[in-house]
Amino acid sequence: MEVRRTVPIKLDVADSDADLLHDTVSEFLWAANYVVDHAWHGEYKTTSKAKLQRETYDDVRAETRLQANLVQNARNKAADAVQSVIARWKQGKYAGKPHFTSPTLVYDKRCATFNDDHATLSTVEGRITAEYVLPDASRETPHSEYLFNDDYEVTGAELHYRDGEFFLHVRTKADVEFETTDEGDTEHRTVLGVDLGIENVAVTSTGTFWNGAELNHWHREFEKRRGSLQQRGTRAAHETIQSVGRTETGRYDHFLHTVSKDLVAEAVEYDCDVIAFEKLTGIRERLPNAKKFHAWAFRRLVEYVEYKAEVVGISVEQVNPAYTSQRCSRCGMTLEENRPSQARFRCQKCGYELHADYNAAKNIGVKHLRATQTSSDGGAPVNVRLNRGTLNVNGKYEPAADSGQNGSPRESPSLHEANGHAVSE
Question: E strands along 243-352, which residues?
């Protein structure tokens, strides 16, 4: 089967070349937003890449210094975003006009060359050489497993700028045959399920909670301060608002970086191959009291987990969140009545009671498990990692020695353990 992997590589570039990359990113984002604006004009939205190419290419070439292939990549990025919006509309969901601000730039093999220790990248003023900052070659890393593996072909990359550094997320693909066990199943993998929320920013299937009280407090305080400054309407107040905004974003980023680092460490500790989140599309509609800020924070958190997880060879997936909050992770019964409050889950069939977010995290892991199910007898080569042992697609817990009644793990029904502590199975 075809396997795709992305390897993030930190780049070492001269200051003058960094300036060129910044200029190229800026013009790339302008080009992508220009195409979106054109596609959005009129009653019907244009999604055809060929049509957008005909109608916008000359304008973008005239207004930017981008090389032809970068113009095409910007058009593709814009067209894909518009197509995603149309798909949401067809599902009866809200989606607004796309607008790109994150400092990223898409390269393909026509406008970049990828070597073992460096890449040459097109900019607004010719190509520059970016040296790779690589880990110790004596230990196994995603770089040795995918980037330097002749079985994997480099297909392109996306340039990112974060924390004052440039990173190249190199995309690779290969046709891989998975190893099989004596029973004929593909090699087992382990997934860590993660539920995202307002009260608890993240909860894992291993029973670890990251409380969101501090993040929500900062958001409320910054909103109050911003509102007070806006009422003044002075230039000094406006400049202070901008300063407050930078401070606010810095605090959020620090918090989310910490949580993402802890999540990846949790996955490493429990020997997980996959971290599974719920899909973020429409998350504001699913979560009571969720604001635009929370949707932004969740996207940023998943993004941070993705690039941190890639470094240690763990993949990040998103699953359909339908019914994960109503389904009993012990017996599978799905009822609205199973969740009488935001924090409490109590199954109306088997009486299983636990924190609702913890229950949802386990269900998210099961959703990924089912999506990757391959064996003909209903088993799957993936287990959901719990605090003690694992859970498979058939609802069986291992090891059985840790089980309570009905083969399910012993688990504290306490609903108050939501401050970064693990809940026992």
Answer: 274-278, 315-319, 344-346
Contact (CB, 8 A) for 383 and 390: yes
Helices 68-90/49-63 angle, 10° precision: 140
CA distance 70 to 161: 17
Which residues neighbour 167 within 8 Å (Cβ) at sequence distance 6 or greater? Answer: 8, 9, 10, 11, 159, 160, 161, 307
Q: Over the range 31-47, which residues count as b (16 or more CB within 10 Å of their CB) and which as e?
A: bbbbbbebbeeeeeebb
> In this predicted structure, which of 91-95, 186-190, 208-212 has the lowest mean pLDDT?
186-190
Mean pLDDT computed over 42-70: 93
**Can you tell me the distance from the alpha carbon of 71 to that of 58, in angstroms, rounded to the nearest whole number?**
10
Write out the CATH class of domain 189-215+244-407. Answer: alpha beta
Which helix (H) or strand (E) covers residue 34, if one does? helix 15-40
Q: Tokens 């889950």 identify what position?
A: 345
- In the chain, residues under CATH classification 3.30.420 are 189-215+244-407
Tokens 């007898």 correspond to: 377
- CA–CA dist 124, 71 (Å, integer): 11
Contact 295, 302 (CB under 8 A): no
Residues belonging to the chain = 425
Question: How much is the pTM?
Answer: 0.52
Q: What is the DSSP letter of 181?
A: -
User: For 309-347, what is each residue's pLDDT tens digit?
Assistant: 877 778 899 888 888 888 998 888 899 888 877 778 889
Cα-based distances in Å from 396 to 58, 203, 289, 330, 391: 60, 22, 35, 9, 6
**Burial of residue 280 (number of CB atoms within 10 Å: 0-12, 13-18, 19+):** middle
Tokens of 382: 């993936």
Q: Where are the alpha helices (DSSP H) in 95-205?
A: 142
**DSSP bridge partners of 204:** 194
Those residues with Cβ within 8 angstroms of residue 214's Cβ, 6 or more apart along the chain or in another chain: 255
**In this structure, what token pair is assigned to residue 256?**
């989310």
Output the average pLDDT for the chain: 77
**Which residues have CB under 8 Å from 120's CB, separation 6+?**
112, 113, 127, 128, 129, 130
Q: Are 385 and 397 in contact (CB under 8 A)?
A: no
Determine whether 198 is exposed, middle or buried from the number of CB atoms within 10 Å of its CB (0-12, 13-18, 19+). middle
Based on its alpha-carbon atoms, the radius of gyration of the chain, rounded to whole angstroms, reads 24
Helix ranges (DSSP H) in 91-125: none
399, two tokens: 């090891």
